[in-house]
Specification:
Shape: globular
Oligomer: single chain
Number of strands: 32
Number of helices: 3
Largest sheet: 4 strands, antiparallel
CATH topology: Neuraminidase
Strand order of the largest sheet: 4-32-31-30
Mean pLDDT: 90
Low-confidence stretches: 1-27
CATH superfamily: TolB, C-terminal domain
Length: about 450
Amino acid sequence: MQSILLIACTAVTLTVCSCQSSQNKTQAAADSAAASQPPQRISTGEGDTVTLPPPFQSKSVKNFSHVISWPQGQMPVAPPGFTVNRYVVNIKSPRWLYVLPNGDVLAALANTESKGIKAVKDITSGKIKSEHTDQSANVILLFRGLKNGVPEVRDTFLTGLNQPFGMLLIGNNFYVANTDAVWRYPYTSGQTKITAKGQKIMDVPPAGYNNHWTRNIITNADQSKLFVTVGSGSNAGEHGVDKEVHRANILQANPDGSDVKVYASGLRNPNGMAWAPGTNTLWTVVNERDELGDDLVPDYFTSVKEGGFYGWPFSYYGQHIDPRIPAKEQRPDLVKTALVPDVPLGSHTASLGLVFYTAKAFPDKYQGGAFIGQHGSWNRSQLAGYRVVYVPFKNGKPSGRPEDFLTGFIGDTAKSEVYGRPVGVAVMNDGSMLVADDAGDVIWRVSASSK
């Protein structure tokens, strides 16, 4: 075993050295050009502005956070007028949340899995201290009722899954988006456990670059279509665009999984999806590319146009070319059509969770706006993200910049220590909000103590 580990470590060392050499050459070639390029201030899709520094203006660094768990009695911080409590504790890697019409709360427990050489690389890079990377739980739990801020019933809703993430109910059909396929199960309102055999209705490309194994799923207003997110298989197309079929896409299909097509493309790693209240406009949050510097490229929250192309891997924020794409592989025909996203969310924030607030319990300023869970950075010299932000909306469009809503996840900035990492967000039937903290192994509940 020691020999195998030694060989694996040697292979990783050679691979890392080779990658670092390649990255160093790329950065060296771009340094002089970057130094002479001023930052560019551009208008976003909703009339806001964002400043984009030139590529490689700052060095690309690996700065994985170290999860040290929550001290007893400590919890995230919400604005005045809100109360935060531990809704569920001691559950491994709660990643995504879904509230059924009857008020039952479902939590998908899953995480990145590191095996073989990848596991050794995660140890040497420090990633293993940032999140769960062992065997994924692959289960969906159910929580029912509420007493003193915690559920009265807890049950195992569904097992036998493969890195489950997105969940959806249409009529008597319950859908789960695993990393490699969408499955459909018969469901009866009120049941606490699904034991019936499911049916695979749609294959999707499995796993992907870094944490791009997550697959979300929602439906439209008349429940006639499924929409499924699939992240890229690479950072910036380095394995070849031919390896990215049905990746970096939002896919559309019929409820039985037939007639699969690309609804929107060039979205490097889309996760949260939701329809803006009172509109037929789909919105998503997207993780942009790594290794171009501390402040490039900003993740974003954007409306999604059917047939729209959002740049990846050839460009970002419209026609800003990624210099790492060889000239012979560029697609100027696509780049000229690339759409500028609506709301920048900060570079490397890993913005994942998304929910529009349509309940009445929170103060009026939050009505109709969007809450976004930012899982947090690894490719930035100073930690970014690790919070839930709020984007105000008016008449179906963003009416202000993102503002902090739930913070306090970062402990010691100098040591890159964090207590947890927020991901999925959902609104309970009583109007309180749930936040899945997959690194802290807890689900937080945020309720309005005054309105």
